[in-house]
Design goal:
There is one protein chain. The protein is an all-alpha fold. It is built from 17 helices and no strands. The radius of gyration is 32 Å and the shape is elongated.
Amino acid sequence: MQQLLHPICLTLAVTGFLLLCWPPRHLRQDRALAALAGVYGFSALSFLVSLEPVWRLLDDITGRPSTGILGAFGSVVALLALQPVVLAYWALPPDRARKRARVCLAAGAGVIAALAVLFFQLTPAGRTTPQGFTANYIHTGVYQAYLTLYIVAYTVGETVLAVGCWTAARRTDQVWVARGLRVVGIGALMTFGYSAVRLAGVGASLLDLTPPSADAESFAWICADGGTTLTLAGFFIPTVAVHAVPNARAWIRAHRDYRRLAPLWKTVHRAMPTIALQPARTDAVARLRVWDINWRLYRRAVEIRDGQWALQQHLDESVRRAAEQRHRAAGLTGAELASAVTADQLRAALTAYRRDESPQTPTEYADAETRDDVRTPDDDVRALLRIAARFDTEPAQEEAAPSWT
């Protein structure tokens, strides 16, 4: 049962860990997210070292049989210490959360140190398997103390997690966070079945009674791995709702805006190639740039503005006046009117630039009057998108004549 369930849990833990770690800068900015990534990472490690091939590899590397049991138990205690840290940073003020985190991490480190001391006092009994380790050592006093310490710490950690999750779920007003925390709480309660079977095994050994049956052993692993699966899934629900979904939407929106600015950018870039800091060799290469899309969108906006600034010396008052009359007649006002007029001015200025024509009456862009409303890069992208929506990339019919006639 263990070797069947562990790969499933390992896959879930590794997937969650990788998703939480990208992008890495978020871990430095969000301590709860960093602690949650640690929960998934240590969970993955505990399942990994409990797989028989990895278990045997550790034996060969360390030269000591069954080192995997220390790695597995130590990893579980580490994630148990990190779980209340996640809840603390989610539910408490920063100062109280830091104090709670220090207490939890210190307690976890103390339990791991005690487990290590007890493990190295065990007399090696030859090579074992993850499934047979407990049966080989349960009759020794050192291992009984080792297992009891682990199970007590495990039960206390899961109890703290269950109580903390249900308390936090009642206090939060975010629906998905509350649902995720309740799922975590159910998973924590489910692990009590594992603890009960393990403590029953220790008690049976101490009292020289019949050890738990094979069915009880299967039940223990179902409770442990099933509870862990619910815990990992429950923690991931609010993470997806609060972090992943907004980030995915922002990523999709940035790609959409990047593509919408492409016609305007290409037209300006063809006339002034020097505006591009890192131009793509082909359009296909540009479409493949997916990971740093926010940076590339920012660069595209800056480059369009650079081209707009360079073309300013080719703006003519007659073009602006004619454009304003035409677009006002079409019912445009405010920022939409300024964007439409600016698009016409850009088109005419590009024609004048290619012909090296100078304006009869210089002027400025119509959107210059709206620049005070542009306070962030996002605001600038929105303004440029309005211009791009009105920008005609096809050669104007009147380009055979001077641009301002």
